[in-house]
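anyone else get weird line breaks when pasting these?? whatever heres mine. first is seq + tokens for prot A
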Amino acid sequence: MITLLGKYLRKARIDLDLSLRELADQIGISPAQLSAIETGKRDAKTDVIDKMANAIGISSNKEREYFEQIAIRSNSEVSFKVRDLNEATANTVTLLARHAGKLKPETVQKIEQLALEDLEME
């Protein structure tokens, strides 16, 4: 199943007039890996998502946030480096990740709303 990330990435690659090989080389992955990400057969890892954004010329924070959201929603698994977070944030994120399926939808909405409000303040 083609994901939103795959569609976005493929469109950007075509708009930039890049072949699979050319974009894959810029990202540092194989053309087969890029093809699998574009077609939704493979998830993109966090470090690869960042390299993709750079390779297709995403520079503004707003565009990068949008691209990362697409990538997160497209991935069946979300990964991040807890060691890059402060201890309180790492504990909270780990707790949410472990128990996300048990949370009520309204709780998830509240958490999302609080996070978005906090990000808008930056």
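and prot B, same format (seq, then tokens)
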Amino acid sequence: METIPQRTLLRLPHPEALAHVNAYVQTRREQAAIDGSLEAFYTQQESHLLEGLARLQKSLTDSRTQRILHTLTQKYRDAEEHLPPHASMDDRAAARINKDHFPDGLHVVSDLDNTMTEGSHYLLQAIPASAIAEPLLAQKGREHFPRVFVETWQRALAQYPKLYARGGKESYAPLRGGVDACFAYLKHIGAKRSILSANFEPFVKGVLSRIPSVDRNVDVFAVKKDDIRSTDKGTYLQLLARQNPSRALIYIGDGASDLPSLEAQSVVACYFALEGSVFAQELAKAHIPHFTYRDFHDIQLKLVHMQQYQPQKVAA
């Protein structure tokens, strides 16, 4: 099956364009089942992606990085040292973001899907090849993402990045309430702002283009055609902590896909988790400093409160 030029597909309504891409991706998968060279190509591409993940993990093992991460871990421990037993979550979080420890303020990192947006039902409607890939992931498990990616999304992402961007720019993904005001507040207080997503970079940037306060100063770490490192959120958060050690790191997530971020808990000041999510349940179970939210108005109110809050300390 021949590929259709991106400019041709962009003239079509989005659902029709996606149908063409999905049919092309499905045909390639069927060809791979009988074409050994295409199967070998998939294996080679998967190996390349896994090597990228391994390099990311290895980047945290050098002595300088280990010293920085150890210092950050100790800062958070020291921040809670003078709190009373069974200190409230407000006490713990406020102590951990204190400017005595982190003079440059906050670094707030947010997930995208079902965090900055409402739900994730739009994925099949908005993103090329997802109608083929998502059922495969559901069948095989998320740990097989690299292989499913090379068999489905990778070629589509390389050939049709503007279709991915259009899926984000159009209103398939409803924004969670308060997200624009919250990011404006973070900009106002001088916080560093980043997006860490296992979704695809053109789509993520398309969604963000609909949020006025998310400007070019907001860093985006998402999946690219030859780079899936953003799916390893635990390692990536440690990398971001290492790069910005004078800022208290806060992570905002929503569900099971954010559980790997807990691998970075020793260098994260506190978490925000969607109310009622498995992410919130795991944070509570592990007694990790966190707050729950229903929308970004909740997050902004809590951040304002944390900036003004004076933790209760044990009398000397």
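btw re prot B: The CA atoms of residues 113 and 209 lie 15 Å apart. The domain at 62-118+173-308 is CATH 3.40.50.1000 (Rossmann fold).
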